[in-house]
Structure formats: C-alpha cells, structure tokens
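Hi Q.,

Before the meeting this afternoon, I wanted you to have the PZK prediction in hand. No need to reply - just skim if you have a minute. The sequence and ligand are here:
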Amino acid sequence: MSETTVHLGSGKVRELYALDEERLLLVASDRISTFDVVLPTPIPDKGRVLTGLSAFWFARTRDIVPNHLLALRDDGRSVECRRLEMLPVEIVVRGYLAGSGWKDYTATGKVCGHTLPAGLCEADRLPEPIVTPATKAETGHDLNIDEMEAARICGHERYTAAREAALGLYRFGEEHAARRGIIVADTKFEFGVDPDGAVVLGDEALTPDSSRFWPADGYEPGQSQPSFDKQFARDWCEASGWDKTAPGPELPADVVGGTQARYVEAFERLTEIPFENYLGEPEVVLA
Ligand code: PZK
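Predicted structure with the ligand bound:
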C-alpha cells in the first residue's frame, strides 16, 4: 500500500482503505467473531477464503446485478472496488427461519412485516424467500425494519432495484450451494449507487460471514442448526464457560485447525476449485 492510502474504517474482521477518489481497498483479516465478540485467536486463511468466495460469486452473478469488484490482489485477501454511495440499509434475504427471523416469528407470527404461515418450526424452509431489511446501527445490533420503511429511507426506485437483485442473488447462491450440500439459510447484501445512478452490489456476498451456512447433511428443522463454519469454535466457547462478553477466550490449536478446515471445505465445495490453487493464483475464482 502507498503512504497515501487512507484508512476509512474497520469492521469487526475487515478493514477499508481509500485508494483514490473512485476506488477502495477492502481487506479481510483472519479474525473470527462468535456470539458477536471477536476472538483473540485468528483462523489462518479465513480472510482469503472469504475474499475468494465473494469474488467467485461476484464473477458469476454479474448478469443478475453489477458489483463493485475491480481487482483481486495477489495476497488473496484484498479487493480493489468501485467507490459507491452506499444505501443506508442492509438487505437480508431469508429462505429459512433462523436467528432474529425465528425470534420475531415466535413472538408475532411475522418477520419484518411478512406474515408467514402458522405452525412453522425453527429452521424450516420458507414457502418462498423473503426480504427483511435492517438499518445499519452504528453500535450494537442492526435494527430490523419493514420493506415500506426501507423504501422510504433508500428511495422507492433504488430499494426496489436492490431487493429484486438481492432475491436473484439469493436464489442463484442458494441453488448452487444446495447442489453442493450447503444450505444458505439467509444472507445479507449491501448495495450502493454508482455515479450513473445504477444500483451496484458492494461489500462481500454469500460468504460464511454474511450468511448462515448449514450442512445439508443432517439438516433437521425443529431445532437450531449447526453453523457450517463456526460450529467448532462456538461449541468450544460454550463448553469453556465463557460469559460471552469481550474479550473472548483463546482457541486451542485443534479448534483452530478444525475451524480452518471447515472454511476451506466451504470454499472448495462451493467453488469446486482446490484452495491451494486459489493461494497460488487468486484470479482462478474469476474464470
Ligand atoms: C463501504 N463499508 C463497510 C466498513 C469494511 C467494510 N464499494 C463501496 N463504496 C463505498 N463504501 C463502501 C463500499 C464497500 N464495500 C463499505 N463501508 C463503506 C465496511 C468497515 C470495514 F471492510
């Protein structure tokens, strides 16, 4: 990075830099969060897995919606991207009933204004995917809002374009992943607008950090499902007696290794590219 590269912000596990007026650099670290706390122990290559997967989806969904990806760097963990005017809402698509969706459903029978059929169980597949926007809270948790509210905040035309793109992306990713034994229960997208006013996909897409990935093998509605990627780390954290407040516990080597293997397995199942090939030449995911 040049000395004029300006650090714009930090996410929980990523960093954002300005390259120039039109371009940003998004860098994925190996940090992992569980129960909303970043753990002190990195998972080797996690940032490369997420960057490579996201780039894989960007390359394959250009016809659904344009995206911000300009270049994948040789380090495999950073992408140059177009600088957009980001919409102030996250667009979540849910194909299954989990997390805050399940919570809201049990309390009200609804999720972000969508009335769902009675009698659904935790982790059930929904009759069709729903879009559940959320405002990006500065601190703490995102606030679920209904689509009317999201349309008011974003502008109706922009919101409609983003929600249609999000549904198309989810359907594409969910079907692709299902054929490879991974359920994409839900996923979050962030969109921006380019100087021509076009809605463009930003951030990362269809990664384990922006989605709930479940192993299809052993899927059983009526109970919470194990996370494809983080379950080893979560289970160990639970058993450790940690109170889930920062700082989190250091992970032992076997848990780090098991978690790393699950991330690499998700990458290889979804891309059908050996992760070693990605490390040698990241652009293999763009072909
Ligand atoms: C943008 N974030 C989230 C915060 C991170 C990521 N293409 C873009 N244009 C303008 N702004 C953004 C993007 C993207 N992507 C993304 N905030 C702004 C964020 C902190 C660290 F890695």
